[in-house]
Amino acid sequence: MTEAGQIRARVSAVNDDIVTIRLLEDEEGSFYPIIKNEVVLICPHRSDKGFAEKLQAEVLRVRYGEADVQVFENTRGVSIGDGVEHTGEMLSVALGPGLLGQVYDGLQNPLELIASQHGFFLPRGLAVEGIDSQQHWSFQPAVKIGARVRAGDLLGSVQEGRFEHRILAPFTLRGTAEVSWVQEGSFTVTTPILRLQLEDGREREVTMQQRWPVRIPVNRDLLREGYSERLFPDQPLLTSIRLIDTFFPVARGGTACIPGPFGAGKTVLQNLISRYSDVDIVVIVACGERAGEVVETITEFPNLPDPRGGTLMDRTVIICNTSSMPVAAREASIYTGITISEYYRQMGYNVLLIADSTSRWAQAMRETSGRLEEIPGEEAFPAYLESAIRALYERAGMIRTNDGRIGSLTLIGTVSPAGGNFEEPVTQATLRTVKTFLGLSADRAYKRAYPAVDPLISWSRYLDQLAQWYDRELEPGWTKQVREMLALLRQGETVQQMMEVTGEEGVTLEDYLTWLKAQCLDQVYLQQDAFDDVDASTPIRRQLELLLLLAGCLNRLPPLADKEAARGHFVTLTGLFRNLNYSRHDSPDYRGYLAEIDKLRG
Ligand code: ADP
């Protein structure tokens, strides 16, 4: 171990945010050790700031006696010979009570606190604790003196807003330790609450906060030791968005990607998903969008009412980086977000992480790789782009915690392909990794067919994986019904294409009916009005009822003599169904529309 706070190296070259450092030698003449991904602090010689400015940087590449580090901040004024301190720590986040409701930057600096003290612009070299060390939490131990615990075991809990925040034994603990002292009461996150007698006889003090390196999954050691276990995702993450839950489901602990051209409704869709999804905690990584958009997210979000009561922000953590912030901090933000998500999953919560957008994250990777002069792959992205994307999504999943609770981390990433071109490397690599693809289409958005997810290009591999759940919990034969409906949409599209060439007259009545049915399914079921209190969210039971009713109507048409009659019938039917969607379930209106719909059945 190297001691923190001492100069161990000196700057030997500066290339934008990549700085080369020359390692100093210890008394025996060997270089001070340095490891990849370790955090070092660069101390610019001349600082005109009132405080000692130390710039955080991460070691990217180590050579003999030298290393390349990436600085998380502007490197203005850094010059040859400036001292470099080791921290002996990898890029880490603080985990403990007090994370919920926070807005952080990629290095876990709480932005609101900084803004209140320093104005909107972050002063360089400022590092603020991620978790407020003054706040007191009422700790209720779950273990007594003499109890034997392993990494990730429950030690006690505090109330964090509406959640029971479970304090877990440090994830770095090796083997089994014995509780030698524990106290109950109101403490800060830095006060020792418990002492552990380790296997090697030493004692270790435990606080309510622990630090964990962001690039390593929180549960890595717990899985390896068999304390915690990965499970096969077999339940859907219900979003109450009909198009997703019914046709393109996402599993709890699963992965999904939403690519979308600008203006196609990505923001509205993300807000709907975070608001209505059946999860406990939502983590949003707003990564590298234009500052204006990020400001939109962080000003809008806290005001969104939570359908479960309170505001959405009470159970949300936002990590945000604008494109004007340094590229390395942008790259780190996704890892910070995922580590916080994993932490809450390890307590047995269902967590949803929305990463917006992974394209900006990949671009940050490309910039860094370029500065390191690595051999570029397609479109100058690094050759390891795909493996980096895969490693990221692999951190999603459903787990069994040490004490048998089930936790999940569902990862939904947006990609913003330039010009809406899905062929570019980030979209392609993401599509090869995720299991649900919700492709937003500019065309559908233009027609105001919201949510503008194109059912003809979207897919979900969970449709099969979750078939058992749906058939068991909802209705036997559900998945088959869904497939038939998807097939109807495709047939409708074929007729549509024919009609574009031949006109309505050129197709048979039968084909015309197929087209009308597909249109009706689209307008009644796929389209959903985000701005209507009732229609915005359709619980899964209501989806079931609606789909069966609609299928019944489409399969049993009354006699329709010609296209004119057919068109008239579908206008009425669609209108009634839309009114049904806008009515509260089982209200007099609702029942009235049901009765009218029933009359239209053949
Ligand atoms: P993006 O983030 O892709 O640029 P937005 O999410 O801001 O686009 O959507 C643009 C506009 O489209 C919104 O202001 C809204 O009027 C409309 N819109 C998007 N999604 C929906 C929806 N589900 N229901 C109704 N209107 C929507």
Question: Which keywords apply here?
Answer:
six-stranded antiparallel beta barrel; Elongation Factor Tu (Ef-tu), domain 3; 4 domains; Rossmann fold; 602 residues; binds adenosine-5'-diphosphate; ten-stranded mixed β-sheet; alpha+beta; OB fold (Dihydrolipoamide Acetyltransferase, E2P); 17 helices
Q: Name the poorly predicted regions.
A: none
Ligand identities: adenosine-5'-diphosphate
Strand percentage, roughly? 15-25%
The helicity comes to: 25-40%
Number of strands: 26
CATH architecture of the largest domain: 3-Layer(aba) Sandwich
Biggest pleated-sheet summary: 10 strands, mixed
Query: What shape does the CA trace take?
Result: globular
Q: What value does the Rg take, in angstroms?
A: 28 Å
Tell me, what is the CATH class of the largest domain?
Alpha Beta
Describe the structure.
- The chain is of the alpha+beta class and 602 residues long.
- It folds into 4 domains: 7-91, Elongation Factor Tu (Ef-tu), domain 3 (Beta Barrel); 100-119 and 232-459, Rossmann fold (3-Layer(aba) Sandwich), CATH 3.40.50; 137-208, OB fold (Dihydrolipoamide Acetyltransferase, E2P); 478-601, Bovine Mitochondrial F1-atpase, Atp Synthase Beta Chain, Chain D, domain 3 (Bovine Mitochondrial F1-ATPase, ATP Synthase Beta Chain, Chain D, domain3).
- Helix content is 33%, strand content 23%.
- The strands form 5 sheets. Strands 8, 18, 19, 20, 21, 22, 23, 24, 25 and 26 form a 10-stranded mixed beta sheet that branches. The protein has a 6-stranded antiparallel β-barrel with strand order 1-2-5-4-3-6.
- Helix 5 (291-300) links the parallel strand 20 (281-289) and strand 21 (316-322).
- The termini are far apart.
- The model has no long low-confidence stretch (mean pLDDT 92).
